[in-house]
Write a structure and sequence with these properties.
alpha/beta; Arc Repressor Mutant, subunit A; Rossmann fold; 2 domains; 10 helices; 15 strands; about 40% helix; globular; DNA binding
Length: about 250
């Protein structure tokens, strides 16, 4: 198992159990205790968990803070890929789509790049991934945020108001019964506009995003036409009852 695969598995275990001994993690991942200790040290240095005597504890996610892009990119990878593959298979050639910032949306971009449609990118990684073959890419101007690479600010908002899209592929920091929310005010403003200028909004979110509320409201659930998530969530009963078109992959 490659280090990235081990790290992803460890974080999945920490999300499930919150606190684990090193030997328990080693047995579940199927590698030696020495290897796990090195992995735990690496993840601790990245701020993704905290070391304890003989094990590790999950770092409680703050709804007021945004994880760095590098940290987000290794979490819930299998779930993000499953979501992305479903969405990629349902994108229509010839359509115009807004690609939100974020790692789940980036996985979609990688799978549809080169096909004949128009993409409006809200961050640099998505724009770079999409700009091949027959895909027409429009990149908003504005401020590029450090460590996340999203594009925000008055320039972005002014340009977005002039555009119209068939579908907005939206990511989220948090989703609860009150709707979709974001830890960064500037990003939330861009997302709000993207919802307004799009005929349809699809929310792409792995199960770790549900049951939380971040600082800034983006939109209510009734402004989202479809939510695509994975099978790992234990907090979906309230979502099923909300009436939103829910796709679990």
């Amino acid at each position: 198992m490659l280090p990235l695969e081990r790290h992803t598995r460890i974080l999945e275990l920490m999300d499930q159990y919150e606190t684990l001994l090193t030997q328990d993690i080693a047995e579940r991942v199927g590698v030696s205790g020495a290897t796990i200790r090195r992995d735990l040290q690496d993840l601790s240095e990245r701020g993704l968990l905290s070391r304890t005597h003989g094990g590790a504890v999950r770092v409680q996610r703050s709804i007021a803070q945004e994880p760095a892009f590098a940290a987000k990119s290794i979490r819930m990878q299998s779930e993000k890929i499953a979501i992305a593959e479903y969405v990629a298979a349902h994108i229509r050639d010839g359509s115009t789509l807004i690609f939100d910032a974020g790692t789940t949306i980036l996985e979609v971009a990688r799978r549809v790049a080169g096909r004949p449609f128009t993409a409006i990118a809200l961050d640099l990684p998505a724009a770079q991934a999409l700009a091949v073959g027959a895909t027409e890419v429009l990149l908003l101007g504005g401020r590029v945020r450090s460590n996340s690479f999203s594009i925000t600010g008055p320039w972005s908002e002014e340009q977005l108001r002039t555009l119209r899209a068939d579908v907005f592929l939206m990511g989220a920091h948090a989703v609860d019964a009150q709707g979709v929310s974001n830890a960064v005010i500037e990003e939330a403003m861009v997302k709000k506009l993207a919802v307004e200028v799009s005929h349809r909004t699809m929310l792409l979110a792995d199960h770790s995003k549900f049951g939380w509320r971040a600082m800034t409201q983006v939109c209510a659930l009734d402004q989202v036409q479809q939510i695509v998530t994975d099978r790992g969530s234990r907090k979906l009963n309230w979502l099923k009852e909300s009436g939103v078109d829910l796709t679990v992959v």
